[in-house]
Design brief:
With 507 residues, the chain is mostly helical. The protein has 25 helices and no strands.
């Protein structure tokens, strides 16, 4: 029997575990075994999946915003860029990054090995980032920025979708926060790395320091991309470094979480998923909310520039840019952990935007260095709220996966248009106060808060509707069947009703 079981295990690696069930797979589902097995499965994912995507995300944002650090060390003058051309270089990345996220996520849902898809994209954007260092004019750097946006588009919404294929709704917020803390830490470590390179590599081998910045960071990203191809998991039904029993358990967890299997019907296509997402009224509201939110948080692309208004040298400015992002990373993890515990998302997302508004008001009120620097700490916490945006999308649109993947791509893709607009509102002519910029960002966050409230109202209304429908079933023949089932199970009618209570949206 042992040989038979082992043979079944080997044959089932590339097959759906719902089809093949060995004795070990049945054994792991026993109540007395399952709880410990589930903890081991989640721990295995946490120690392998999360560190890998955090490192990738760190490199993702370091490569994307390296241009803001390079600006402090002569990039504009070496390439002969005007202010308007520099803003265009910053914004042009999103011209390819935003629309590419939608087809990328549509494709990802049908790629059987997302490890190779995501890993290849990481290698490609690392290569493009390194090539930015050889550019000689405006046209060259614009071309690099356009092509770096295409492979980068696959990562964040793709990584969030991959997390939603492994973790339950009550586990997703904290894991997503760990992922997004990679972005926040990338702003901190990116500044520290940039300070070291820009401060020590000027003129080495006759190459400007800002060019070394792109060469070194691009090379690191390429290495990380190749490692990701074997470190990341695929899907619960075909990940090679899980046993068949663990794969079956992973699928069962997600099916129980929302009352149906996390898989598409045989007829579902990527285009069907797109149509389902567009027809859901929650999706366009999420899209507008994300766009307004990122416009309000667009200071991120100019953070070293804002820190430089404090009046210190380039190296000190980059070093001072790090602590606010470390603070934001800590706040993100605490906030998301509490969101998982409570199952509440609206206030855990929106309240952080209100903290940013306070930061803007302080900066509008004073140019004193202590107050201005303190306001930068408050401003960075806005990304604690953004961490939960795609978590909320995944919770509000849990099934089918084809619809969920497209919805996440639409929301993040359209939302990043806020970064495109934001690239032009932090105008150098408004420095060092940037009052006009902050007023625009403040108004954008007010609009985002209103749209977030609209989404909460929509989900509460849906929950109330489902509650009424379930209560309607508690009368007549249906009530009699439940009472008889309760007697057979030896439980009260109220306990039977509680077991029967179905899926509810988190809001």
């Amino acid at each position: 029997m042992s040989n038979y079981v082992e043979e079944k295990k080997r044959n089932s690696y590339d097959r759906d575990v719902n089809v093949v069930a060995t004795e070990d797979e049945e054994y792991i589902m026993y109540p007395e075994i399952r709880q410990a097995a589930e903890r081991r499965l989640v721990r295995k994912l946490d120690f392998r999946l999360l560190p890998t995507i955090v490192i990738i995300f760190i490199m993702n944002y370091i490569d994307r915003v390296a241009i803001t650090s390079a600006r402090l060390k002569g990039l504009e003058s070496d390439l002969g860029l005007t202010n308007l051309q520099y803003y265009t270089v910053v914004a042009i990345l999103y011209v390819s990054y935003c629309p590419a996220q939608i087809p990328s996520n549509m494709l990802l849902n049908y790629v059987t090995r997302p490890t190779f898809y995501i890993g290849t994209c990481v290698v490609l954007w690392g290569l493009t980032s390194a090539l930015t260092g050889v550019t000689r004019n405006f046209a060259g750097i614009v071309a690099c920025r356009v092509f770096i946006g295409l492979p980068e588009a696959a990562f964040y919404p793709g990584a969030m979708y991959l997390l939603s294929r492994w973790y339950t709704r009550k586990e997703l917020a904290f894991r997503s926060a760990i992922l997004y803390s990679g972005l926040l830490l990338s702003n901190a470590f990116g500044s520290l790395i940039a300070a070291g390179i820009l401060g020590n590599m000027q003129g080495k081998l006759g190459i400007a320091a800002w060019r070394w910045l792109f060469y070194i960071e691009g090379a690191i990203t390429i290495f990380v991309g190749f490692q990701a191809m074997w470190l990341l998991p695929d899907y619960p039904n075909n990940t090679r470094w899980l046993t068949p029993a663990e794969r079956r358990l992973a699928q069962a967890r997600l099916a129980e979480d929302v009352g149906e299997a996390d898989q598409d019907s045989a007829e579902a296509s990527a285009f069907e998923g797109f149509k389902m997402a567009i027809k859901d009224p929650k999706v366009p509201v999420f899209m507008l909310m994300c766009c307004s939110q990122l416009l309000g948080l667009s200071f991120v692309n100019f953070f070293p520039t804002l820190t430089s208004t404090l009046g210190y040298s380039t190296t000190v400015t980059l070093l001072m840019s790090a602590p606010p992002w470390i603070f934001a990373s800590i706040c993100t993890l605490i906030g998301a952990w509490h969101a998982d515990k409570t199952g509440e998302l609206f206030f855990h997302q929106t309240a952080w935007w209100w903290v940013v508004m306070v930061g803007y008001i302080i900066s509008l009120s004073t140019m004193a260095t202590p107050g201005r620097y303190f306001s930068l700490f408050l401003m960075t916490t806005g990304y604690c709220g953004f961490t939960l945006t795609l978590v909320w999308v995944a919770n509000a649109i849990p099934r089918p996966p084809a619809k969920r993947s497209v919805a996440m791509g639409l929301v993040n893709g359209f939302g990043n248009l806020g970064n495109v607009m934001g690239s032009y509102i932090w105008n150098a002519n408004w420095s060092p106060q940037y009052h006009q910029s902050m007023i625009i960002a403040l108004c954008a966050l007010i609009l985002a808060s209103f749209l977030s409230l609209v989404i909460r109202w929509m989900l509460v209304r849906e929950n109330n509707r489902m509650e009424r429908e379930e209560m309607d079933l508690m009368h007549g023949p249906e009530r009699q069947r439940i009472e008889e089932a309760a007697k057979l199970e030896g439980i009260t009618f109220e306990e039977a009703i509680k077991r029967r209570k179905g899926f509810r949206y988190l809001h």
